[in-house]
Amino acid sequence: MSGIPGNVLERAVDLALEEDVARGDLTGRLTVGEGTRARASALAKSALVVAGLEAFAAAFRRVDAAVVVEPLVADGATAQPGDVLARVAGPARSLLAAERVALNFLQRLSGVATLTRRYVEAVPPGCRTRILDTRKTTPGLRALERHAVRCGGGFNHRSDLAGGVLIKDNHIAACGGSVAEAVRRALAGAGPTQQVEVEVTTLEQLEEALAAGARAVLLDNMTPALVAEAARRAAGRATLEVSGGVRLEQVAEFARAGADYISVGALTHSAPAADISLELELLP
Fold it and tell me: Domain spanning 6-120+272-282 has what CATH number?
């Protein structure tokens, strides 16, 4: 599974290498012979969903084009403890210099994919609810983390502020406090194919948004009971997105209440890194 633009990937990897190895690897230079060659295996230490193999490989290749990287699984695959995800071979100094950056990407992105998969699997069978990410991403790594969300079976919300109209509470405050007025202004200026979504916190605001013509509504910090009532009132006139600190154990209830989408900032801002190690051995 791919989908990360090459220039974006290279820029992220180069920045990570610049902060870690721009001045060289002092320990590797002092302890490892210049002609020493080695191979290493990326080993899953816990159950996980793989993401980030492109960045993992790019880190080694950007350090030394002589390093050979062999992925053994694909992004989006599940792995169990002891599974080998990829092998690398080449000059030992180069492997050691790139190791931390390569693992940082693989662990971070596999962590995002693994957490996303847990949310996706929490949606009960028969429910149409999709799990979405948000823009609460690590600065500079959004494209990579959005890829990891897709690897986990989730879907991407808008990629940036130009990617869609989402009227939040502060937009409403900034245009006078009226949900209806904010929706009308957005609809008047948006293109004919551009969806206008508005955030509401009460059922009264929902009614106001629907009356103004909103076809997508974000229900912020509502209980499952309120979401069910919102779904009844919307009656298919607008898609409903549930957001606001949704925990894993709440997913099923919100899905059954009628949420079309559940957006979860934790997928990218709070995912724990996957446990992956790089085991090295010398080559003859």
Answer: 3.90.1170.20
Whether residue 199 lies in the annotated active site: yes
Concerning whether 108 is annotated as a catalytic residue, the answer is: no
| Active-site hit among 64, 220, 229, 253 | 220
pLDDT, tens digit, 9 for 90 and up, residues 230-242:
999 999 999 999 9
> Does the annotation mark 136 as catalytic?
yes
CATH says 123-269 is which class? Answer: alpha beta
pLDDT above 60 (res 1): no
The residue-averaged pLDDT of 49-57 equals: 98
Q: Catalytic: which of 136, 158, 184, 256?
A: 136
**pLDDT (tens digit, 9 = 90+) per residue, 172-217?**
999 999 999 999 999 999 988 888 999 999 999 999 999 999 999 9
184 catalytic, yes or no?
no
Q: Work out the mean pLDDT of the chain and round it to a whole number.
A: 97
Considering 197, 199, 208, 241, which one is annotated as catalytic? 199
User: 3-state secondary structure string, the chain?
Assistant: CCCCCHHHHHHHHHHHHHHHHCCCCHHHHHHCCCCCEEEEEEEECCCEECCCHHHHHHHHHHHCCCCEEEECCCCCCEECCCCEEEEEEEEHHHHHHHHHHHHHHHHHHHHHHHHHHHHHHHCCCCCCCEEECCCCCCCCCHHHHHHHHHHCCCECCCCCCCCCEEECHHHHHHCCCCHHHHHHHHHHHCCCCCCEEEEECCHHHHHHHHHHCCCEEEEECCCHHHHHHHHHHHCCCCEEEEECCCCHHHHHHHHHHCCCEEECCHHHHCCCCCCEEEEEEECC
Per residue in 132-166, pLDDT tens?
A: 999 999 999 999 999 999 999 999 999 999 999 99
Active site residue 275: no
Domain extents in the chain: 6-120+272-282, 123-269
